[in-house]
Amino acid sequence: MLAQVFAAAAAVTAAAPAPHVVFFLADDFGHYDSTVWNPDAPTPTLGKLAAEGIKLDRHYVYQFCSPTRSSFVSGRLPIHVNTENHPSSEAGGVDLRMQTVADKLKSAGYATHQVGKWHAGAYLAGQVPTARGFDSSLGYLNGNEDHYTHYFSGVKGTDMWNNTAPAYGTTGQYGDDLYVARSLRIIAEHDTAAPLFLYHAFQNTHTPYQVPEEYVDPSDPEKVQAFFGMIRHLDTAVLNITNALKARDMWRDTIVVFSADNGGECLGKSAGNNYPLRGCKYSDFEGGVRAAAFVSGGSALIPVGKRGTTSTALVHICDWYATFAAMAGVATTDAPGYGVPASDGVDVWAALTADAPSPRTEVPLSAESVISSVNGTVYKYVTDSKSANVWTPKDFPLSPAVPAPSCAKGCVFAIDTDVREEHDLAAQLPDVTAALQKRVAENAATKWQTGADGYVGAYTHCTSLDSYMASHKGFIGPLCSMKH
User: Fold this and answer.
1) Would you please indicate which residues are annotated as catalytic (active-site) residues?
2) 88 in Cβ contact with 476 (< 8 Å)
3) Taking burial as the number of CB atoms within 10 A of a residue's CB, which of 44, 141, 211, 460 is the most buried?
C-alpha cells in the first residue's frame, strides 16, 4: 500500500521549485523543556537546529491538544474550527468541507505523509488523514494512550491506524519508535523529483511517562527520569529524521518547523516546565499557549543573515497553512461557503525572514482571551481562574509551582514587556480593558465548532463503538462510513 502511494505521489511534480517541508509537533512539551530556551535541557539536536535557524518567541497555539492540531490542519483559528478535545467516537476535529494543508500541498505536487498523533477528527471515515489529503498515515486517532499497548482509556480500546484500517500487529511496540521508523521509510523511498510534506506529530512527551530504558539516565533525579528520557527520545528522533534527509541530499531544500501543541502540563504528577512563563496546559496564560518553536533546515529560503536570530513576530499555528501554500505557489486561503468559516491563516514568512511587519496583528487565543493592539501597544486580555494558573520554577517539578493571582474577572497585561504576566493593568487602564473585552466578545460571536451543525456529508452509515470494536479486534476507528 505504502509503495503504491509513493509512486502515485511522484507522478505529479510541482510546476515550480518548492521546498521539502517537515513539520514536527511535540505533545505537551514545555517552554523550558528543550534547549530552544533552556541551555541545560537534554536536547542537543533541538538546540542545534534552533541555533541554525530562527527561534520563534511569539508562536501561539491553543491551550490543549485537538484544537491546536485542527488549527494547523485547517488553517483556521481554533475558535473557527474546533475548541473541544472530543474522542473519535464523537463529532469534532476538522469539518469535511474544509480544505486541509495537505490538500493544498498535494495540489502543488507534494507527496504528503502524516505520522504519529492525529486528533483532528475521526468520527467519520472521511476525516482520517488519508481522506484529508495525506498519501499515507500511521498513528493514533485520539488524544492519548499507553505508549506500548496503544490502549486509549477514553473509549476503552486500542488506537493505532495505518492508512485506511487499524494497524494490527503493533501492540507492544513503543509508539514513537513506530513513528520514527515510518518517517525514515518515507524519506528513504521518496522520489525527490517531487517535494515532500511530512507532518510528524510525536506522542512524547504526553503522559503516561514511559520510555525505553536506554533513554533513561540514572543520574537524573528519580522524579524526572522517565520524563527526561522521553525528551531524549524525541530529540534523538529529530536527529535521525534530519540525518535521513541529509543522507538523501534533501536537507539543502528542506524547511523544518518545530512546535509544541500547547504548554507543558504541570498539574498533579506532571513534569512539564514552562519557566519563566505563567500557566501551563489548559490555561490561556503564556505558559499554556506560547509554544516552544523554531524554523530551521538547509533551504536557502532562510537567509544566512537571519540564521541564529530570534523573531518576535506574532505567529499562530494556523498561519503555517498560508505560509506553506505560498511557498508551494498555490492559493493561500480556503473559503468553502455553506456557513463554514474561511481560513484565518496568513503568510508570515516575510515577517520571519525579512523583518517585514507581521500580518498577524491579533491572536484570539480562545473565546475568552485575546492578544491585540490598543493605541499602538500590544496587550493581552485573559480570563482564567483554573488550577493551571501558576508559575513553574526553573527546577520544576523538583520544586513546586507557585500559585498566581486569580484572573477570574479578567486581567490585562502589556505582554511585550511583561512576559511573566505579573502586572495586571485592568483597573489602571479601564479604556484599554474595555477595548479588549469588546474584541473578545466580537471574536466569541464568530465561534464555530465542527460537528455542531450535524454535517456528515455522505458518511451516513454509522455503527456503535462497541460494534465497531467487536468487528475490529478491539481496535478503534471511524464509526460512520459511506453506504456501500
Assistant:
1) 65, 119
2) yes
3) 141
